[in-house]
Amino acid sequence: MPQRAPAAVPVSARVAAWPARRNDLAPRFAWTFAVAFLCLVLPARSAVAVYGAGPLGVGVAAALFVLPLLYAVPRGRAVWARHRNGLLIAQTVLTFLPFVVFGQGWTVGLSGLLGGLLLLTVRAPASWILFTAVLVAEGVLRVGVLPLPRDSWSLTVWAFSSPLNMALASFGLVRMADLVTDLHATRTELAALAVARQRLRSASRLREAISDRLETVTAHATAASALLARGPGQARARLTEAAGVARQALDQVRVVIARDDREPDPPVTGPAGETVAPRVARLVLVVVLCTFATQVLVNVVESATAAAAKAGAAAVIVAVVALQLRHTPARREGVRPRVYAWTLTVQILLSVVPVLVYDEVNLLGMAGFSAGSALLLLPGRWAWAAFAAVAAGVGTLMATYSAYGVYDVVYAATGTAAYGLVVYGLSRLTDLAHRVEAARRDLARLAAVQERMRVARDAHDLLGLGLSVVALKCDLVVQLIGRDDAKARDELRQLLEVAAQARDDVLSVTDEERQRPSLRKELASARDTLAAAGVEVRADLSAVPVPPEVEAVLATVLRESVTNILRHAAAGHCAIVLSATGAAVRLQVTNDGAHSPEPAGGGTGIANLRVRVQALGGHLTTAHDGEGGFELAVEIPVAR
Predict the structure, then answer these.
(1) Residue 275: which residues within 8 A CB-CB, separation 6 or more?
(2) What is the pLDDT of residues 559-576, one digit of tens each?
(3) Structural domain total, the chain
(4) Strand ranges inside 529-624, DSSP E
(5) Whether the predicted model's global pTM rises above the 0.85 cut
(6) Could you read off the pLDDT of 371-385 as tens digits, one per residue?
(7) What is the CATH number of the domain that holds 626?
């Protein structure tokens, strides 16, 4: 019995959708669309296989769906990853062996299942080359080898369009599920790329702004040490200039931070993984829509309908496609089209009414467009109710024609549902491809912003103290020259050590491996620095076990506290106390030189410290007693 022309419904085949996002897909459900499509196509193709290949053909057709279904189910990917080549060979044999067994009676289009698997499992461009070869192979077998009727354009077009649509539909629906997963997943590799780029940029600028100035400070200090005995006036001049350069470097830290904040982020690119570029998604959608509409149009032209009816039917097909192209972008643009309720109603009526007027049953093939539009445009349950109503309506209309049997009714109803899922899925594929691309940009941008904030905090906390101490010691040595040369020489030695530490701090700001300051080292530095400024220090660091991440924050707090004492206070005494309080450690730094009120908000340094402390679940408090006493206290919980 010759292969029937497709009289009824030839089955073919995104850091914004709508603001409410109610119709967004959850990753755990997205894969069900591809599975549902394949399960709907299976009975439709089986209904056709009965005519040309009998019960055995139905079994072979069903076997062809097993491996695509395995790939569509998330847990099946592991099997495909281990045995990809063997499974592709098995699918190839199952695809082309029936041509030998059943000849022209074999169902059209099932090679599209193999084509879809090739697109899904083989890397481009080889996947597209193999996909094209499979489609051409079926077309050549149908047209050039098997005795296909030479006068049937609809069958000729069907031989090429059916596998094309089947392949692109299965590919698109599976990739849609992948994109949903990508959209909801944390793309840490892209964030890491953005952080690395920002870190390199900040490192370059900080080194450019500070390193040369620190070298100048070191050169002046070294020269002053040599001139101390024989040229005290020259030594003072050198150190006065060194102090000025150190303060310039401190100003440049602020300039670099401000410039980083003003500059736009560079474009971020990253590995595409299993996703689809937006332009490919759009192309797949347009090809499937146009190919399917062309097939229906050819069926209408070849039918026995009067010429006027054919012209009217052709106009209906064009109108349905135009309306679909209006409905499809709604997901990506984030708003429903204007008067969408009317355009959807018109699209549904255009798929049904002409069938009754012209008695042209081929037009029922366009009902899948309406079913897909219902899923795209209507909210929640209303969408699925309309989708089911369209599919059931097509089956009911087919049942009213005595020329069509139960297989035709099944073919029409399941075909409409399957194609509706394809229209919806490929429209979502385009939307999700755009959204994943945008989400990657946003995530990378956010990572870069966070890295800038971290660099700003570390530059303030680490470099601020070091450069302030360098300038302070330069001033101190200038005063000591001629009065206590031995003390001046000792302070010069310490100045060179602090300058070297400041150079290391520049690297620490942009190097994760060097960002763990030691609390005891900071205490030793604080003693020397404050003593040089004439501040008496009393320290009590109890033998409290402190996790490394907590110690790093406490060391930063101590460093910032010392910086503030040097900058803003005229202290004579400072107390530093570390203690354990229940399941927390507490660091208190007090001084007696804060005679002016605390700035609103505690200043930038205090704000930075508060962010660090809160990130570990702790809290930071400050207290001013109004008589010059000031206390900064930090308490951070620790596991016992």
Answers:
(1) 175, 178, 179, 182, 433, 436
(2) 888 878 877 667 888 999
(3) 1
(4) 536-541, 573-581, 584-591, 619-624
(5) no
(6) 888 888 888 788 889
(7) 3.30.565.10
